[in-house]
Amino acid sequence: MKKIVIFLISATLFFISTNLSAQTEKNQTDGCYFRFVLESPVGSGWSPSYGINITVDDIDYGIVKLPWGTPSAEVTLRLSSGEVKFFWMGGTSVASIHYFEIYNSSDELIYAAPDLFPVGLLFTYQNECPECIPLTDFEGEYNQETKLVNLNWTAPDSENLMGFNILRNGVLLEFVASTINSYASQTDTLETGDYKYCVIPVYPYICDLEEKCFETHIENLGVKKYSSALSLYPNPANNIVHIAGENVANVKVFNKMGQLINNYNNTNHIDVSLYPAGIYIFNIATTKGDFGAYKIVVTK
Prior knowledge:
This protein is mainly beta. It contains 2 helices and 24 strands. A hairpin with a 4-residue loop joins β23 (278-286) and β24.
C-alpha cells in the first residue's frame, strides 16, 4: 500500500506520493486537482527556500515546496474555481536543479519549467471546478408504532450527482440512486439509544458539504421480534402476500412514509393487488404478544 503524508500549508492540504499511476487515477475524478511533478537529474531537488506561491482570484492559497534532497517527487493539491496564479519564489538557476511540470486533473501538461525561472508570476490558469450542490428541504421523522425512521429531501439539481449515502451513527446503511428523495429505515432490531441519520450527496469528485442529519431516541425495551418464526412471501409481490407461521393475530400495513394503509385480523394472506407499487412495512403481532416488522416490495 502506498504511503501518503499529509501536511498543512496555509490551511491547504497537500498530498505527496511517489505512486504516480495511482495518483493520476485519483486526480481524474476531480476537476480541481493539480499535480506538481519534480524531476531533478542531479538528485538535489529543490532548495528549501524555493517554492511556488499560489493564489485563486487573488486569495493566497499558500506555497508548494517539493522535497529537498530527492531526485523525483510529486505534490498534489486541490484548488477552487477561479483565476489561479502561480508565482515562482526562489533562484534562477538551470532547470536540471529544480525542473518540474504541472498537470491538471485531466493529466494535461499545463506548465513545464523553463531553463531559467522568472522570479514572480510564472503563468495564469483558469480553473473550473465542478460545483458541489447540497440537498435541501431535509426532514426526518421517527414513528414509534411502525418502528421506522423516515428521511425526505429535495435532490440537488446537478447532472454530476451520482446518488446519496445514507448513514446511521456514521456507518453507511445504503447508497441510493440520484432519483431517490426519501428513505425509510427499520429500527425494530436496534437497541434502545440515541441515533443520528444523515444523507450526503455523492459526486464523482471530492466535496466538502455540511451533513444533513436527523437525530432521535429509539425505545425498543421489552419488544420481542421474530427472526425466523415468521416469513413472508413472495417478495416482491403483486398479488397475495402469504405469512408463513402460526398465531398471527394482527397485521398492520404501512407505506414507506409511515402512514397506515390497512389493518387485518386473524389472517395469513394479505391481498396487495390494489396497492400502488412501492415499499410497505408489515407489522405483525401474534397471539403470544410477539411482534415483527417486515419490508415488502409491491410491483405492478
